[in-house]
């Protein structure tokens, strides 16, 4: 006989409500003819509405040439899309690290103008930002008779799982004339530490979780070519996510931008990047909650009100450095439900949820 309590009948999730998405498109080939720019198809796919409706559309897209990237404040945007950007200064690379740690998203499209040496040595090896290294490009973009295609079934990643339904259409008919060979990054050491966390104390577990957030996560293949080689690779980085495409966002190297699948593929990629910030807002009852905070919160006290408690029954936790970044840690998640977190100076608030393992119901 199965006995079910009220607690078993309810699930609580913490999610963010987004009013608008701010996207920055960085064009590595800002030529005079708009249709020939690297961001023409990206902009129209992100905002697939008539000009008269742009002001009311939830995605706000701004486009700048690559030369203006070093002077641009990344935190003004939820996601940055680099389209055939050759390279950028070290200070901008560091700015991208800080941006990703705070939950920003980065989507990279290569092309004929990029400096592959910079992407591999600086962004992949030195700063560990890219989820894959760039090998030699294959194919000839100057002709359209020889091409290679994408996988036609077995889509394992959430971004592309939509196409497991034959009624949705297919990605197999898209033609690629040139693309970089991508070699996904190996699993970072932080994953090993995370796997061993069961032998650690609750405080150690929170520290491991925060450390895992700080470093790059495991690279995953989003989409493959028909021969099995990676076409798109992604991985979490800090509270953000980085997605690397192997071919251009324009029609210079493929015909993806003029295919119906381009819009849902781009929007699902955008959704995956934004959802990264929500992944640690839901924990199991009894598990440690760890949240990266901005530098301005270091040393501040956070007030946490557990489910069923009154505001004056709050618990205080100091935001401290963990692996070099400010982190809020809270271990007393023994009650299922929503936890309210607030900081007074500077003022900030968030909610996270703890819930029992559904397998125990």
Explain what the structure shows.
The protein is of the alpha/beta class. About 20% of the residues lie in helices and about 25% in strands. A 7-stranded mixed beta sheet has the order 2-1-3-4-9-8-7, sandwiched between helices. A 5-stranded mixed beta sheet has the order 10-17-16-12-13, with no helix packed on it. Helix 4 (about 190-195) runs antiparallel to helix 5.
Task: Summarize this entry quickly.
This protein has about 350 residues and is of the alpha/beta class. It has helices at about 40-45, 90-100, 115-125, 190-195, 200-215, 260-275; strands at about 20-25, 60-65, 80-85, 105-110, 130-140, 180-185, 220-225, 230-235, 240-245, 280-285, 290, 300-305, 315-320, 320, 325-330, 335-345, 350-355.
Topology:
Layout: E1 21-27, H1 40-46, E2 59-65, E3 79-83, H2 90-101, E4 105-109, H3 116-126, E5 132-139, E6 178-184, H4 189-195, H5 202-214, E7 220-224, E8 230-237, E9 240-245, H6 262-275, E10 282-284, E11 289-292, E12 301-305, E13 315-318, E14 320-322, E15 325-330, E16 337-343, E17 348-355
Parallel strand pairs: 1-2, 1-3, 3-4, 4-9, 10-17
Antiparallel strand pairs: 5-6, 7-8, 8-9, 11-15, 12-13, 12-16, 14-15, 16-17
Helix pairs in contact: 4-5
């Amino acid at each position: 006989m199965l006995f079910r309590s009220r607690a078993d009948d309810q699930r609580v999730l913490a999610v963010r409500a987004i009013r608008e998405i701010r996207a920055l498109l960085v064009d590595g080939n800002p030529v005079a003819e708009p249709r020939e720019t690297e961001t023409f198809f990206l902009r129209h796919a992100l905002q697939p509405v008539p000009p008269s409706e742009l002001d009311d559309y939830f995605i706000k897209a701004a486009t700048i040439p690559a030369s203006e990237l070093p002077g641009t404040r990344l935190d003004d945007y939820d996601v940055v899309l680099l389209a055939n950007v050759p390279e950028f200064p070290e200070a901008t690379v560091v700015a991208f690290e800080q941006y990703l740690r705070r939950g920003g998203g980065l989507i990279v499209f290569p092309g004929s103008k990029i400096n592959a040496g910079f992407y591999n040595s600086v962004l992949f090896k030195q700063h560990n930002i890219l989820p894959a290294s760039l090998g030699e490009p294959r194919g000839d973009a100057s002709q359209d008779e020889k091409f290679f295609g994408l996988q036609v079934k077995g889509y394992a990643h959430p971004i592309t799982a939509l196409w497991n339904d034959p009624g949705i259409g297919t990605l197999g008919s898209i033609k690629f004339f040139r693309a970089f060979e991508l070699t996904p990054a190996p699993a970072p050491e932080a994953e090993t530490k995370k796997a061993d966390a069961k032998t650690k104390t609750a405080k150690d577990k929170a520290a491991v979780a925060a450390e895992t957030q700080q470093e790059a996560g495991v690279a995953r293949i989003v989409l493959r070519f028909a021969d099995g080689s990676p076409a798109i690779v992604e991985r979490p980085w800090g509270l953000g996510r980085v997605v690397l495409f192997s071919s251009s966002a324009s029609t210079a190297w493929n015909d993806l931008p003029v295919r119906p699948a381009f819009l849902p593929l781009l929007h699902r990629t955008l959704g995956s990047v934004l959802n990264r910030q929500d992944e640690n807002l839901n924990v199991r009852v009894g598990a440690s909650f760890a949240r990266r905070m901005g530098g301005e919160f270091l040393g501040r006290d956070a007030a946490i009100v557990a489910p069923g408690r009154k505001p004056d029954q709050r618990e205080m936790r100091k935001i401290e450095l963990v692996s070099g970044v400010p982190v809020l840690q809270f271990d007393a998640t023994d009650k299922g439900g929503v936890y309210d977190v607030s900081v007074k100076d500077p003022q900030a608030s968030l909610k996270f949820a703890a819930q029992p393992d559904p397998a125990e119901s």
